[in-house]
Amino acid sequence: MFTHKLFNLRCRSLMRKYASQTSAAASSVRLENEKLQKYLENLRGEYYALRVNTAGNSHAYARMARLEGVVNALERQRALERNLTSKHDLDKETDEDMRKLMEEENEVYTDLIRKQEEVILQELLLLADDENYPAVIFEVNAGAGGQEAMLFAKELYEMYTNYFEHMGWDFEEYAYETTDIGGLRHANIMVNDSQAYMWLCNEAGVHRVQRVPATEKSGRMHTSTASITVIPRPADFQINIAEKDLKIETKRASGAGGQHVNTTDSAVRIVHLPTGLAVESQSERSQLKNRELALKRLQAKLLQQQLQSAESSKQATRKAQQGSLNRNEKIRTYNYVQDRVTDHRIQGGTLHNISGFLEGGDQLSRLIERLQLEQRKVKLASLIEMWQPPSDVNN
Length: 395
Known about the structure:
Helices cover 51% and strands 19% of the residues. By secondary structure, the protein is an alpha+beta fold. The chain folds into three domains: 2-127; 135-236 and 329-360, Alpha-Beta Plaits, CATH 3.30.70.1660; 243-311, 2-Layer Sandwich (Double Stranded RNA Binding Domain). The strands form two sheets. An eight-stranded mixed beta sheet has the order 2-3-1-5-4-9-10-11. Strands 6-7-8 form a three-stranded antiparallel beta sheet, covered by helices on one side. The protein is elongated and about 100 Å long.
C-alpha cells in the first residue's frame, strides 16, 4: 500500500538526518525499508503470540507491555488505511462532485496516516530504550583549570541537583569535597529513580567553560573543564560490608569548623582491608555522624568499583548501541563571553542564556530530551541492522 511507502520514506529521511552518528552498517538499514517493515510485522506477531501465552510468566508479560504501544500504533494506522479510497475507485467515479469529495477525504486520511507514522516511529524509539536501573551514581569532578575548574564544577553540581528536584527524583549526597574559595573538587550523589539513567546517561563526559575569571585582572579568557560520570546501578547489585573488613581511625578534624571540631576526635577515616579503599569524613561535628557518612562513601566507592568492572565487559556492545553520544570527551561548552551553551553532539545544539540554563530547569530539560531522542534513533538503527527475520536465522 502506498502509505507503507510514505512511512518508509519518512523513516529513511529521519535516519539520514543522523547518519553521522551511525555506522556504515546502520546506514544500509535506512535504505532497506523492506527490512524495517519485516521488523515491525515481527513485533506485531510476537505481541499477539504473547497475548495468548503469558499466564504466570512475568518476563513475557513485561515484554508484551513494552510491545503494546508500537502494535497499537500499527493497528490504528491500518484502520486509517482502510478508510482510503483506492485510485481504481476514484477513476470509476463519474460524478465530479463526488470524486472531488472522495479526494478531499483521502487527503484528510493521508494526513492522519502521516501523523500516525510519526507515532509508530516514536513508539519504536521508546522500544529501543532497553536499559532500566533503579538508581545511578552521579559524579561531578573538577578537571583542568585549577580553582576556576573547581568553581565551574560547583556550578554544574548545583545545576544538576536543581534538575533532580525539577524531575522530582530522590537523591542522596555521598561525597562532597570543597575548596577554600567555595569551589568543588568532587561530589558523589546517588539518584534513586528508575528513570534517572535514561535521562542522565548523555550528560556523562567533559564539560568545558570559557570565561574571564573574577580574579583575572587583564581580562583574559580562561578555559577550564569539569567531568560528569553516570554509572547505572542494576537492581541485583548489593554491597555488604563486614565489620571485620574495616579499619576505623579517628582523629581531630582540620580546617574551619569551630573549637569543638578542632579539639575532639570527630574526624573518621575508614579503610576497607580487602580492597585497600579508604574514605574520610570530617565535615560533621559528631564522630558518629562522620562515621555514618564515611561508611556511605565507602559503600558508594565499592559499588562503583563493582559497576565499573561489570561495565567493562559490556563496553563494546554499549558503544555500538549508543554511538558517539556517551564518548568520554568534550560534549558541551559554556561560553560566558557569548552567553551561549553549545552541545557538540547534535546539529543546532547552541542556545543562549547561560544563567537560565544553569538553573537546571526547563532549558536543561529540553536539551536532555533532544539528546535522548537522538540516542534512541541511533540505537534503533543499530537494532534493526542487527535483527534477522526468523526465516533467515537458519539460512
